[in-house]
Amino acid sequence: MFNLAYSESMEDEQQSARDSEREVIQRSTEMMQESDENPHDAQSRVRAIHFTSQIWSYFLNDLVSVENQTADELKASLMSLGIFILKHLESMRKDPSLNFEPVTEISKTIQQGLK
User: Fold this and answer.
1) Residue 42 dihedral angles phi and psi, to the nearest 5°
2) In the Cβ-directed half-sphere of 50, how many Cα atoms lie within 13 Å?
3) Each residue of 56-87: pLDDT tens digit?
4) What's the number of domains the chain is made of?
5) Which of 7, 35, 72, 105 could form a disulfide with 44 if both were Cys (CB 3.0 to 4.6 A apart)?
6) DSSP readout, 54-103?
């Protein structure tokens, strides 16, 4: 009985965490799309870069934590994506001609996987 209740509680926590991650990625995606739609709005671009960098830095730190029980293969893939995203965002800081499109596409795919 206790094991069943514990198992259900853990599943609820994991679903809640996935929901939160999906919502944060959705907000980031919205910010990036708004920025790409208004390329002359430098503040929007800076906010989107900063927010997206923060969440991916958080995700990467979580992935390397010993408590993270994500399967190794998925963990490695997510870490590779996170590193790519952070590098692209850094390039965007230096080159205003770059847009968010590759990061937006990755984010949408991950967001769908979290449903």
Assistant:
1) -65, -35
2) 6
3) 999 999 999 999 999 999 999 999 999 999 99
4) 1
5) 35
6) HHHHHHHHHHHSTT----HHHHHHHHHHHHHHHHHHHHHHH-TT--SHHH
User: For the stretch 64-79, what's the b/e string if a residue is b when 16 or more beta carbons lie within 10 angstroms of its beta carbon?
Assistant: eeeeeeeeeeeeeebe
Residue 72 contacts residue 7 (beta carbons within 8 Å): no
The Cα–Cα gap between 108 and 29 comes to 7
CA 91 – CA 88 distance, rounded (Å): 5
> pTM (2 decimals)?
0.85
Q: What's the length of the chain?
A: 115
C-alpha to C-alpha distances, 30 to 6, 57, 77, nearest whole angstrom: 36, 19, 23
> Residue 99: left if φ>0, alpha if ψ -120 to 50, beta else—which one?
beta
Q: 5 pLDDT band (50/70/90 cuts)? A: very low
Give residue 20's domain range.
2-113
User: How far is the C-alpha of 43 from the C-alpha of 4, rounded, in Å?
Assistant: 50
